Amino acid sequence: MSDNEGRKDLRMPDDDEVFAVVVDMLGANRVRVRCMDGVERTARIPGKMQKRIWIREDDVVLVEPWDWQDEKADITWRYDKQEADQLREEGHIQE
Fold it and tell me: For residue 18, what is the enclosing H or E element?
């Protein structure tokens, strides 16, 4: 048995995406996120995610910062708890 048996292949960020942790729920499909590049942004939950995926504080998400307004972003992916713990263990996310 390898020590890697519980590891799943997780979706990693594309070139224009960053890991982020949800800090605050703002309402109206918006959340405040702290991105791993050191910037706090207002992120938008896109319509295709709104009813299917529930996003809560302290969730780990992937965001795509807007290229014309750096303080805003769109959420592209949400990790579940096991995946988030794995990302923290592997050092992708610093609290």
Answer: strand 18-27
